[in-house]
């Protein structure tokens, strides 16, 4: 990310730095996921022109580590906090029913937690070097060069046989 004074005034630039993201573009991918559920049932991702790696960083944290961000993370935290408070009050108000304590809103289940997914493969490709990320295969290659395709396929599937594909 650039370091000009204009960049430093940008709210998302500062927020990205504070939250440990490599670039402000991480917020755009998180926003798109929140709006369109991009990561549902995803197990294979290729991040082209990936440097500095902020989208790969988001993918690593969401798909591999199972972290939640945005509204769903906040809602789950809110529900957990309410439940903790209700359990405290349950101990103090053993004779009262739930209607006199706070209603049925507090009994809702939090969204299904995002879990780390099995068999996720994420490959990031760029001409520029990319710092390593947990669970991400990074390739320093030219995406326009035909020799990159077998490298990518091998990174996605360890059993990929380049010689068998060439003979077809």
UniProtKB/TrEMBL annotation:
Ranges of compositional bias, category Basic and acidic residues: 110-119
Keywords: Methyltransferase, S-adenosyl-L-methionine, Transferase
Presence of keyword Ribonucleoprotein: no
All copies of domain Ribosomal RNA methyltransferase FtsJ, residue ranges: 21-63
GO cellular component, one term: cytoplasm
Pfam families: FtsJ
Protein name: tRNA (Uridine-2'-O-)-methyltransferase TRM7
Species whose genome carries this gene: Magnaporthiopsis poae (strain ATCC 64411 / 73-15)
Lineage summary: Eukaryota, Fungi, Dikarya, Ascomycota, Pezizomycotina
């Amino acid at each position: 990310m650039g370091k000009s004074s204009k960049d430093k005034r940008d709210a998302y630039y500062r927020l990205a730095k504070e939250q440990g993201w490599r670039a402000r573009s991480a917020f755009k991918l998180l926003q798109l996921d929140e709006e369109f559920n991009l990561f549902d049932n995803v197990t294979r991702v290729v991040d082209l022109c990936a440097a500095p790696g902020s989208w790969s960083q988001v993918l690593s944290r969401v798909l591999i580590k199972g972290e939640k961000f945005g509204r769903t993370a906040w809602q789950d935290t809110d529900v957990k906090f309410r439940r903790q408070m209700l359990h405290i009050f349950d101990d103090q108000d053993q004779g009262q029913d739930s209607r006199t304590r706070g209603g049925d809103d507090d009994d809702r289940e939090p969204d299904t937690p995002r879990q780390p997914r099995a068999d996720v493969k994420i490959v990031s490709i760029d001409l520029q070097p990319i710092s390593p990320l947990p669970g991400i295969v990074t390739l320093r290659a030219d995406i326009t060069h035909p020799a990159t395709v077998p490298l990518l396929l091998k990174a996605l599937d360890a059993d990929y046989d380049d010689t068998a594909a060439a003979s077809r």
